[in-house]
Amino acid sequence: MWRMRAVVVGWAVSMTGMAWAAALPSAQGQIHPQEHHERILSLQQDDFVQGRWQHSGQAVLELLGPDGRHIRRLSQDTDEAAPFGFIARSAGDYRLRVAGQGSYQWQLTAINAPAAPEQAEPLQGDVIRQWAMRLRAGESSAGFWEYVSRVGSPLVERYSATHDRVTFVWKGAQDNVRIHGGPASYDDRMQRLGDSDIWYITYDLPRDARFSYRIAADVPHVAPADRRAALRAALQRDPYNPQLLPENSRDLFQGGSVLRLSQAPVPLAQVSSTDQPQGTWRQGRLRSQALGNERDIHIYQPPGAEQARHLLVLLDGREYREQANAPALIDTLVREGRIPPLRVVLIDNPGAASRSRELPPNPAYTRFLQSELMPWLAAQGLVADAANTVIAGSSYGGLAALHAGWRLPHHFGNVLSLSGSFWWGPTGEHGQWLTRHLADAPAAAVNIYMTAGIFETSGSGQGVSLVQANRHLYDVLRARGYTVRYDEAATGHDYVAWRDALAVGLVHLLGPVASDQAVSSGQADRL
Prior knowledge:
Blueprint: E1 3-4, E2 8-9, E3 26-31, E4 37-43, E5 48-55, E6 60-64, E7 70-73, E8 82-87, E9 92-99, E10 102-113, H1 126-136, H2 142-151, E11 155-158, E12 163-171, E13 177-180, E14 191-192, E15 198-206, E16 210-217, H3 227-234, E17 244-245, E18 256-260, E19 280-288, E20 293-301, E21 310-314, H4 317-322, H5 326-335, E22 342-347, H6 352-358, H7 363-379, E23 389-394, H8 396-407, E24 414-418, H9 433-439, E25 447-453, H10 466-480, E26 483-489, H11 495-510, E27 524-526
Parallel strand pairs: 21-22, 21-23, 23-24, 24-25, 25-26, 26-27
Antiparallel strand pairs: 1-10, 2-4, 3-10, 4-9, 5-8, 5-10, 6-7, 6-9, 11-12, 12-15, 13-16, 14-15, 16-18, 17-18, 19-20, 20-22
């Protein structure tokens, strides 16, 4: 399914087969302002390149194409080593450029050449069927793409009283096109319409659906262990959809395209990633003995919150600043009187590996929160009663938030869990670990708001999907006597859903909930 190939890296190299893998290029050094360091990679079309990057300071790694133009930023803003990957869309000399300021190190780990394509079975929806006939009659696909350019993508048709037929399209791929986000899993593939340049996939979706998605064209056929990484390297936004998140994405490979169907709820607070928070910021660096690392902590104070008695502790802080623009959202909620003034603590993760290790329930993270974070915040003047404190997060962060509320109710009297990964179980144990422990323990004195999306149905490896695990947890919490609200919506695992739900959850937990949004404690609702 795949093969290794030789590559020219800044100078002539002649190697074949696997023997050259040890000589894959790497670089390290110190970068200063107004300078850049480059290495040249001579690649063939559809080569899939993987590597790892680590830095300190403001150093960044960028990819330049054979024409010398910027293609994308490859580096991540984490303290830990992180993987990167990209696909060469044409043969030529590509440049890995380091710019900014600070120390850095990168290492290529694999360069895989494309193998034979897989066969796809044809599938047609209503909107595509008309064009199939027109193409068979000899009409050019140019008319189809003119139509798409005019109306935008995806193509939405009314299907029933409750659902729309939605078709996502891509132009000009040679081998395969895949889509990820919302109802689409990593395995969903577009179909090619005859031998034209039209690729498509159609879903029947609830008319209140809202989610982000990305599309990957000509994903290389690589070894099974590398397939997910190859897909992530190719995923990009839909060029025919102007709606995106974050709204200030740097290039096509950052962020996702956004779909909101006609009956999708209007967000409680209208903000975008380009809105500037109007409050004040403080930033600190907290070293943790419990976790054996250190991280940035950002403290945000909205206008008028100088004497605030409420506190929000938000996990995955960097993502909620950059993807959801939570500070601007909270500005709006406070200004409109939907929630009381509060101060926001945004906790960054050192990297993806530490996030996956720390946020699922474990004693070390509990010690970090209780013995290190909360005393550190008190030293900064951030003290609030547990009843006025919310801990919030999404995915693993939602799991961590509820675990913290259960174990530390004297600190966190309110829990806001967005798409919590309650399917999780330690290696070698059954899944839904937290649910099982909550079922066997007395109820803690916490109020809980939790959400999940109907599209979050992918398998977790624990025998239950995320949305199923959230439904089960909600039933357990009610049975144990917790004060809990659970909202389920036509959403996916993304910040389109989480930004909207963060506002709803904060209003529910802290403020007077508008009558059209109110849900009695202990009842589930569909957002």
